[in-house]
Amino acid sequence: MRKTALAAKPADRVLRITRLFDAPRAAVFAAFVDPKQALQWLGPRGYAMTHMEADLRVGGAWRGCMRANSGGRELWHGGVYREIAPPERLAFTFAWELEDGARDAETLVTITFEDQGGKTLMQFSQGVFETPDDCEVYRGGWESEFDQLAVLFARK
Questions:
Q1: CA–CA distance from 68 to each of 49, 71, 74, 125 (Å)?
Q2: Which pairs with CB-CB distance under 8 Å and at least 24 residues apart come from 133-136?
Q3: How far apart are alpha carbons 156 and 80 in whole angstroms?
Q4: Which has the closest alpha carbon to 106: 94, 98, 115, 121?
Q5: Residue 23 has what DSSP assignment?
Q6: How far apart are CA 110 and CA 90, in angstroms?
């Protein structure tokens, strides 16, 4: 697996997702940074977000916990805000917390929000992952979370 990581170009190890949300960009931006809103949609299918906290400032930390709907396994993760430019741009680190208290490999998430006549074009990237396969593992999770975010906006 390590050979694959070394052979792959960095661009092949960055996850990119583009999504159009039927909501103003200030509302979409807020859904990412307001812990109360994040609890309503973060967590891929099969997981519920049970805890979310955020010190919303550059250098401030964020931390969350997802609980599996089946079995109750908890997955803690967190990071640090690197850029906060409401409502256009957000960047933060992301790492899983391991059972021994250590942190897994850290990636950088960067999100831009562009107004599209009252809707919001979100461009999401996360990386650099160790392998291209790691990108695809994360894609499914994020896509299902963004599906839930779209449903949340449809209810409003």
A1: 9, 6, 6, 25
A2: 133/4, 134/13, 135/12, 135/13, 135/14, 135/15
A3: 30
A4: 94
A5: S
A6: 6
CB 127 within 8 A of CB 30: no
Q: What type of residue sits at position 77?
A: H
Summarised one tens digit per residue, pLDDT across range 75-134 is 999 999 999 999 999 999 999 999 888 899 999 999 999 999 999 999 999 999 999 999
In whole angstroms, give the CA distance from residue 83 to residue 55. Answer: 13
pTM more than 0.85: yes
The structural domains of the chain, with segments of one domain joined by +, span 12-155
Dihedral sign, CA of 126, 138, 92, 122? positive
- In this structure, CATH architecture of domain 12-155: 2-Layer Sandwich (3.30)
Distance CA 66, CA 84 (A): 24
67-74, long-range: CB within 8 Å, 24+ apart, which pairs? Answer: 70/46, 74/50
With CA atoms as reference, report the closest residue to 63 among 84, 83, 81, 85: 81
